[in-house]
Write a structure and sequence with these properties.
The protein folds into two domains: about 240 residues, D-Maltodextrin-Binding Protein, domain 2 (3-Layer(aba) Sandwich), CATH 3.40.190; about 210 residues, Periplasmic binding protein-like II (D-Maltodextrin-Binding Protein, domain 2). It starts with a strand and ends with a strand. The chain is globular and about 65 Å long. It is about 40% helix and about 15% strand.
Length: about 475
């Protein structure tokens, strides 16, 4: 019997792929949430579902007098931005009706409140302890955000929120065509270097892999390690390999991987990408000891000048803020193209919206919650978020509304703008924990010289085929 496929594409996680490894544990806990909801019966409909007087200042017709509760995940972005945003809401409401709290344990803190029919209005559902969105949707626990999408943006009344958001934000936040969560933050991946160091040495960031290898050889000749990565969390290098392969072969490579096709990994593009990654080892371009470094330790080594280039996501500066020395001026560039005839341009990057905000269906002030999200998407809120976190929000205008950005944030903004529609990501690591585990293992073997590119592709294809043929594993499909 053919396996059942779910057509929903889950949201992209943001900070690092470390939390992807926790996705299996989060999904495994979905039964607990379902059981709690079931034991309490079907919750009553949430309050403030009907709009009041709608004005230019209040297009959703939210009741400004109703209390509003916001819970922020206090992770890599911190919670200061939440304090700023709740201030914007209270200014709009004309009183201290909004309250914000933060936690690192979202599910542990809020699961029983959802089960009891008394959830907060707005939740930043992120981190390793995030609540499983699919289960919340299935239990009718999340509000339909269509009214938010159809409302005018704060800064341009002629521009609806749905047209302000990056298209991927709506896709990633929707279930069966209905938006149930708002991916607020855009994260992109690339190679990072110190601008002043490269200028001092006369080094030019490479756009092709052959030029990159030549650059690494030049760097190595100075006694500096060209490249450092986190060997403990091989998902970082997995993402670089994915980027190389997808840019080389186009979006079909991405779709075939996610859809568990028989040639998803056994193809020319993945082999070429695996060969490129293995070259870093074979040429001695990787800093000694990288295999034993975790993400922050490898990033610290880079910041201390022990290596020239590191692969990471756009949260790098904020994550290492306390260790960045004056004048280091980090810069992100796209991962180089494998060839000059790749299907996607050099400017294409791996990335997408994440950090999902949800509104409880049974909260007392749903429309107030949507107004809060609307204010979060304003230029003022986006600029404040960028200032505090070094990251962009997932709107089309975010890169144009920065105030005195750092070199890191400016480079991310420029890369995002240059990429345009050529921004992509994979979902199979979230969908299939067995495939995630296989990829982490096989990347460790490849990057450390214990397997060949052919062996890497064969092992990954075998793992994908096993998932595809396992009737106990729920399958998902992706169309774009």
């Amino acid at each position: 019997m053919a396996p059942e496929f779910d057509k929903h594409v889950p949201p992209i996680t943001r900070r690092s792929l470390i939390r992807t490894a926790a996705a299996g544990a989060a999904l495994a806990g979905t039964g607990a949430l379902t059981a709690c909801v079931a034991s309490g019966g079907t919750p009553a409909p949430g309050g403030s579902a009907s709009a009041g007087d709608q004005t230019a200042d209040n297009p959703l017709g939210a009741d400004k007098k109703l209390p509003l509760e916001v819970v922020i995940f206090n992770g890599g972005y911190g919670d200061q931005y939440g304090k700023e945003h709740i201030g914007l809401y209270n200014t709009w409401a004309g009183g201290e009706v909004g309250k914000m709290s933060s936690t690192v344990k979202i599910a542990s803190t809020l699961q029983t409140r959802f089960a009891g029919g008394n959830p907060p209005e707005v939740i930043d559902n992120a981190g390793a302890d995030a609540m499983p969105t699919a289960t919340l949707v299935a239990d009718n626990q999340l509000a339909d955000l269509t009214p938010l999408l159809d409302s005018p943006s704060v800064d341009d009344p002629n521009l609806k929120i749905r047209d302000l958001l990056m298209p991927a934000a709506i896709v990633n936040g929707s279930y069966d065509g209905v938006m149930r969560q708002l991916p607020y933050v855009f994260a992109g991946w690339g190679f990072w270097y110190s601008g002043p160091l490269f200028k001092e040495k006369g080094w030019t960031p490479a756009k092709t892999w052959s030029d990159f290898l030549a650059l690494c050889d030049t760097i190595k000749s100075t006694g500096l390690a060209p490249f450092v990565h986190t060997g403990v969390h091989t998902q970082y290098m997995d993402t670089i390999l994915d980027t190389l392969a997808i840019k080389h072969g186009g979006v079909d490579v991405m779709l075939n991987m996610d859809n568990l096709r028989p040639d998803g990994w056994d193809n020319e593009s993945v082999l070429a990408a695996a060969t490129a990654v293995r070259q870093l080892h074979d040429e001695g371009f990787i800093m000694d000891g990288s295999e034993g470094l975790d993400h922050t330790t490898s990033q610290a080594q880079w910041l201390q000048g022990r290596a020239a280039i590191i692969p990471c996501g756009s949260w790098l500066e904020n994550e290492m803020r306390k260790q960045v020395t004056a004048g280091f001026d980090m810069v992100m560039q796209p991962v180089p193209s494998l060839t000059t005839s790749d299907q996607l341009p050099y400017e294409a990057i791996y990335g997408g919206p994440g950090e999902n905000f949800i509104i409880g269906e049974n909260s007392k002030n749903k429309l107030g919650g949507m107004q809060y999200l609307r204010l979060m998407l304003s230029n003022e809120a986006g600029a404040k978020f960028a200032e505090l976190t070094g990251s962009l929000i997932a709107t089309k205008t975010a890169s144009s509304n920065l105030t005195n950005p750092t070199t890191a944030l400016q480079s991310v903004a420029e890369a995002t703008k240059a990429a345009g529609e050529n921004i992509f990501s994979l979902n199979f690591a979230v969908w299939y924990s067995a495939l995630l585990d296989a990829r982490k293992r096989e990347m460790a073997n490849l990057i450390n010289g214990r397997s060949t590119p052919d062996q890497y592709c064969a092992a990954m294809q075998k793992a994908a085929d096993e998932v595809a043929s396992d009737p106990k594993v729920k399958k998902f499909t992706r169309q774009s």
